[in-house]
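INPUT
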Amino acid sequence: DTAVSQTPKYLVTQMGNDKSIKCEQNLGHDTMYWYKQDSKKFLKIMFSYNNKELIINETVPNRFSPKSPDKAHLNLHINSLELGDSAVYFCASSQDSQTGRDKFFGPGTRLTVL
Amino acid sequence: QKEVEQNSGPLSVPEGAIASLNCTYSDRGSQSFFWYRQYSGKSPELIMSIYSNGDKEDGRFTAQLNKASQYVSLLIRDSQPSDSATYLCARRAGGFKTIFGAGTRLFVKA
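OUTPUT
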């Protein structure tokens, strides 16, 4: 069974649209993350939730809004999509977030903004 | 200044050789370091964690940490074509954050 799942896997959309990416983990982890990986493969954290509480909110445009309905789910909503938002977005989870052990990544969502 | 620096490569080694991947970091207070492997089109996968100075071995992989010199390395012995991937070095920053390097691409030639 997939430990961290994301939907959709691919997302192609026009500039200005609003889209959402969903993430679920069945590992019982307390902490979930959203990372963005650009075309140069640089992986950068965007948000982190611990037990449904937002604990990391990096310098990300406020067009990006994460939501965690429960500790197994972390969704990412993006308003007014721009060309520069094209990237692969990875969801991840971990149990021992203070030490960073065993961070599991989802398969990624490749977002292409036309 | 990037927080975690890696040579982007590509690093090319023949099958059976030792691949040596290096990483430096800027924050002297860092305590926890990680190596992730990412195959093309796939998600990063944690392969090694290291917290103390010295070497840590796991199968064909050895992670080395030198906090005084602020570098971390990963050695892959008996390299196989299946080891061809991008290797991401990462460190635990304050709180819940992990900072990643840009990764080193490794090619193992059969």
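end of record. The mean pLDDT of chain B is 92.
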